[in-house]
């Protein structure tokens, strides 16, 4: 079902335009656009040399807002595919007055066009669509195609933090990460009954937790690069 366009979307996007990093590559063909580069100058965007973390699929922005409030010494970029979705996240960040968050309307396939090699210290992948249908495997955000992109933009000691409510998706992520050079740590099959203390919840996570569904979580890193 197609999402209905939000009321006054253009005006709302204009009001938060200072938080959105504009795409500059007009080529919408993901196979050819990846060869074109227009790297973000993080120092120019944020006015400092702080570490940069990325959230892929920020939804309405609860997670990235709370994380940025907790870690003011870190810069954050959150991406979403649709302006209809990202506008609420932008409005949430603007209401909080946060200066260390920016957004991009961007598909994860295009990250290498805008993020310099080895520039992101952490990637957050929270509750991605599991895409269980046959033939959709390559579109899962923990598929090896995406893992190669993440390897390219992660810093030497960079990490991936991944959460999901879907056991099959979690098992798939474990296999893909392990088979493509990543080591795993802090893995839990029931996050909210574990001893993990610094969790920040997403909108989806609140809903699933209220339904008493287990949340699966892991952290991944490249052992040959990890300090």
Keywords:
Rossmann fold, 227 residues, 7-stranded mixed sheet, 9 helices, 33% helix, alpha/beta
Polypeptide structure, described:
- It is a single chain.
- The protein is α/β, with parallel strands linked by helices and 227 residues long.
- The chain has one domain (39-221): Vaccinia Virus protein VP39 (Rossmann fold).
- The chain contains nine helices and seven strands; from the N terminus they run H-H-H-E-H-E-H-E-H-E-H-E-H-E-H-E.
- The protein has helices at residues 9-15, 30-33, 42-46, 62-70, 83-96, 111-114, 144-153, 167-179, 203-210; strands at residues 52-56, 75-80, 101-105, 120-126, 154-164, 183-188, 216-221.
- Strands 3-2-1-4-5-7-6 form a seven-stranded mixed β-sheet, with helices on both faces.
- Helix 7 (144-153) links the parallel strand 4 and strand 5 (154-164).
- Helix 1 packs parallel to helix 5 (83-96).
- It is globular and about 40 Å long.
- The N and C termini lie far apart (46 Å).
- 32% of the residues are buried.
- The model has no long low-confidence stretch (mean pLDDT 93).
Average predicted local confidence, pLDDT: 93
Specify Rg, calculated over alpha carbons: 17 Å
Domain count, please report it.
1
According to CATH, the homologous superfamily is Vaccinia Virus protein VP39
CATH class: Alpha Beta
Give the overall shape, derived from the CA principal axes. Answer: globular
CATH topology: Rossmann fold
The termini sit apart by 46 Å
Which CATH architecture is right?
3-Layer(aba) Sandwich
Q: What is the structural class?
A: alpha/beta
| Strand order in space, largest sheet | 3-2-1-4-5-7-6
The unreliable regions are none
Helix content: 25-40%
β-sheet strand percentage: 15-25%
DSSP strand tally: 7
Number of helices: 9
| Helix-strand pattern | HHHEHEHEHEHEHEHE
Largest sheet: 7 strands, mixed
């Amino acid at each position: 079902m197609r999402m209905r366009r939000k009321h006054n979307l253009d005006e709302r996007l204009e009001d938060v335009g200072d938080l959105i990093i504009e795409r500059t590559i007009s080529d919408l063909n993901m196979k050819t656009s990846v060869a074109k580069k227009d790297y973000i100058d993080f120092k120019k965007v944020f006015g400092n040399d702080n570490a940069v973390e990325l959230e892929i699929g920020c939804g309405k922005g609860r997670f990235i807002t709370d994380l940025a409030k907790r870690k003011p010494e870190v810069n954050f970029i959150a991406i979403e595919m649709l302006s209809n979705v990202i506008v609420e996240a932008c409005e949430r960040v603007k209401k909080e007055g946060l200066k260390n968050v920016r957004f991009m309307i961007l598909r994860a396939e295009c990250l290498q066009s805008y993020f310099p090699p080895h520039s992101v210290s952490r990637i957050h992948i929270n509750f991605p669509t599991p895409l269980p249908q046959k033939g959709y495997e390559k579109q899962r955000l923990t598929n090896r195609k995406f893992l190669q992109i993440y390897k390219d933009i992660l810093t030497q000691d960079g990490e991936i933090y991944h959460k999901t409510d879907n056991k099959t998706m979690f098992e798939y992520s474990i296999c893909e990460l392990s088979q493509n050079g990543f080591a795993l740590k802090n893995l839990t099959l029931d996050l909210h009954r574990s001893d993990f203390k610094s969790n920040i919840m997403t909108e989806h996570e609140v809903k699933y937790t209220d339904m008493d569904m287990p949340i699966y979580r892991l952290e991944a890193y490249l052992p040959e690069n990890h300090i």
